[in-house]
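Design request, tokens follow.
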């Protein structure tokens, strides 16, 4: 945050000399004010500006507030570079009312209807006898296709077909009836701005193990460019909490396991929770309140190895502890009816 150096000096004098009787006169126009406060505030202003620039570069709290060169230098620490954008390019034709010899130098500037500049990419020569045969759009004679490239990168240089161009400056080129492009220009892209480049730098720093919201968000957008935003739901989220009823006790005395920040594999750690997840689908045909649970050996694994998060992987059975829990889904209608409920 920028500091008002003049006000800072005045406040410091008041702090150092709390007694007004011994305090120098700091009112504007006083000797002390003119000889000390004003010159020092000017000197400190330059220091404060440089100090703030250093803070901005170290924190990058606002990437739009630093220069492109400074952010490019920071990006080199992560072996990254800014997308410079691409230049639009395409073919135009010069049209004449009669055949003529045409010579166009490389670098000749053509200007679009809205003032954007393009350069002819190579020396071009069309003899009159050749143009006399180019009558596909009679009564006009055309030069054939001439390749031009935008002078700058940017999507504003992408032009639709039949855009009119003119030759810029004084040249020896015969004045054509018109210069137009038969096909649209579509290869121009904008240079990456500071905010977009900064977001890409931070995305590259995230752990790609898909164990964090940022990693998932980055990976999804990297592989599916049409995705605009994501809402990651995972371990610890309210939408992922399951009511597990432990069959060893009463249904009401269920137990919950929190797998937040746990990981799989043969190891021991603060967040280690060696469990194995399986799922079974079965129908309880017993009309009483008893629930017959098939043995877990007949169940299937709930997730693939790649999808495991916070529990042991499929092939870690030898390290896992076994518990039998079930999510009950029975309306007990027959029991309630017999009880008169």
């Amino acid at each position: 945050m920028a500091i008002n150096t003049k006000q800072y000096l005045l406040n410091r004098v008041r702090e150092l000399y709390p007694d007004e009787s011994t305090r120098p006169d700091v009112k504007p126009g006083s000797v002390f004010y003119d000889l000390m406060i004003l010159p020092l505030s000017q000197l400190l202003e330059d220091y404060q500006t440089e100090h703030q620039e250093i803070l901005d570069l170290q924190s990058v709290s606002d990437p739009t507030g630093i220069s492109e060169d400074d952010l490019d230098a920071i990006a080199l620490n992560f072996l990254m570079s800014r997308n410079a954008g691409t230049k639009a390019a395409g073919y135009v034709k010069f049209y004449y009312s009669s055949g003529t010899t045409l010579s166009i130098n490389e670098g000749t500037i053509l200007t679009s209807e809205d003032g954007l500049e393009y350069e002819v990419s190579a020396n071009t020569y069309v003899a009159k006898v050749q143009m006399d045969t180019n009558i596909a759009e009679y009564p006009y004679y055309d030069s054939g296709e001439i390749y031009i490239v935008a002078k700058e990168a940017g999507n504003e240089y992408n032009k639709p077909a039949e855009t009119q161009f003119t030759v810029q400056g004084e040249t020896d080129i015969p004045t054509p009836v018109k210069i137009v492009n038969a096909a649209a220009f579509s290869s121009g892209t904008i240079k990456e701005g500071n905010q977009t480049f900064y977001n890409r730098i931070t995305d590259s720093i995230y752990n790609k193990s898909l164990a964090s919201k940022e990693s998932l968000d980055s990976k999804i957008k990297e592989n599916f460019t049409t995705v605009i935003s994501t809402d990651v739901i995972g371990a610890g989220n309210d939408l992922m909490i399951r009511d597990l009823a432990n069959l060893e006790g009463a249904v009401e005395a269920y137990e919950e396991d929190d797998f937040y920040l746990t990981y799989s594999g043969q190891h021991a750690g603060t967040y280690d929770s060696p469990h194995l997840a399986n799922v079974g689908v079965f129908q309880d045909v017993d009309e009483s309140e008893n629930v017959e649970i098939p043995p877990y050996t007949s169940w299937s694994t709930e997730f693939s190895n790649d999808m495991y998060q916070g529990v042991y992987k499929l092939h870690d059975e030898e390290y896992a502890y076994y518990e039998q829990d079930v999510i009950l889904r029975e309306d007990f209608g027959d029991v309630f009816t017999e009880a008169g409920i």
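Comment from the thread starter after seeing the answer: thanks! Residues 3 and 48 are 7 Å apart (CA to CA).
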